[in-house]
Amino acid sequence: MRILGIETSCDETAAAVVEEVDDPARPWVVRSSVVASQVEIHREWGGVVPELASRQHLRDICGVVERAMGDAAVTAKDLGAIGVTQGPGLVGSLLVGVSFAKALAASWNLPLVPVHHLAGHIESLCLQHGPLPLPAMVLVVSGGHTSLYDVRSPGEYRAIGRTRDDAAGEAYDKVAKLIGLGYPGGPVIDRIAKAGDDRAIQFPVARMTHPDRNEPLKKGQWDFSFSGLKTAVLRHVRAQGEGWSPGPQELADLCASFQRSVVEALIGKTFAAARWYGARSVGIAGGVSANSRLRADAEAAGKRAGLPVFVPSLALSTDNAAMIAAAGLRRFHAGVRAGEDLNAEASLALTP
Ligand code: KG4
Ligand code: ZN
Questions:
Q1: Residue 89 Cβ contacting ligand 1 at under 6 Å
Q2: Residue 205 carries which DSSP code?
Q3: Mean per-residue pLDDT for 91-112?
Q4: Which of 15, 301, 318, 325 has its CA 20 to 30 A from that of 261?
Q5: Which residues have C-beta under 5 Å from ligand 2, the single-atom ion?
Q6: Whole-model pTM above 0.85?
Q7: 291 and 144 share one domain
């Protein structure tokens, strides 16, 4: 069976065709994946401008879907369903994808499956690698979310921790803006940090406690927080005085030190939770999982813990529609169908 996925939750208009094949080790195959990024439009404003985003989705959606169908060499009669991101995200952006998908499903007479954006990020792991050894501890780390999921059976995502303030990607973007590196901040900080000394500046790392399995868990044990780190970077920059303009090494040291704090907090908590819940694998998905240091440190932590670590390819890390198609397939088989009253939900919850 083939499914068309459509994703417009933020600033990427994306469509993809994913096929389910008879191979238990790798059941989902990407036949096409098209992403029209709006990053050049929003860069000028230092972040995503919701109104500009929805207008651009409107311009791009037809061409992106046509291209995804063409690249996969399929027509409507080759599809078994359409999956679309229902939320969470920017409501104007989501509405473009949801309305378009509803119209397509009605005119092509295909079932429509509503998909949670974060379920898409989680399923990007299965799309890339096949089924993960379960239970799996999955960290979803993006521009809007930083959450930990205990996945005990396929398609069951139990949230055990989340950020109390900024998402990790948001911290990257805000710090990059603060030091004049532009938007989006993650890729540029990642690149510059490579030349830096990650111990040059002592930024705070969220304190890690390693809970004893015999004691009850503290409330919020697996939560993250990045606003303190962001404030520490701001204080550091202010302490350098008015008109501070860092040299290349100083900038690299700052990026590397900030990045170490983020990555240590993410990895420390994810692996502690994996131990606590008896996970057999660790997954890391979402835009920030493209980070080179996070990938390398997760791999090393997995080796130390004796746990396999799974991350998506770079193309499947940041927002795309192949992951939405994959999550749509899973939901399709669970019998989930959208009614004619399907609406975009900016704060949609991910229920197990
Ligand atoms: O998953 P995504 O494409 O969109 C959301 O659902 O939010 O994630 C975008 C986020 C941005 O904050 C961006 O700065 C961050 O992912 N990001 C990175 C890297 N590439 C993208 N953060 C750190 N290192 C990277 N290499
Ligand atoms: Zn995302």
A1: no
A2: -
A3: 98
A4: 318
A5: 142, 319
A6: yes
A7: yes
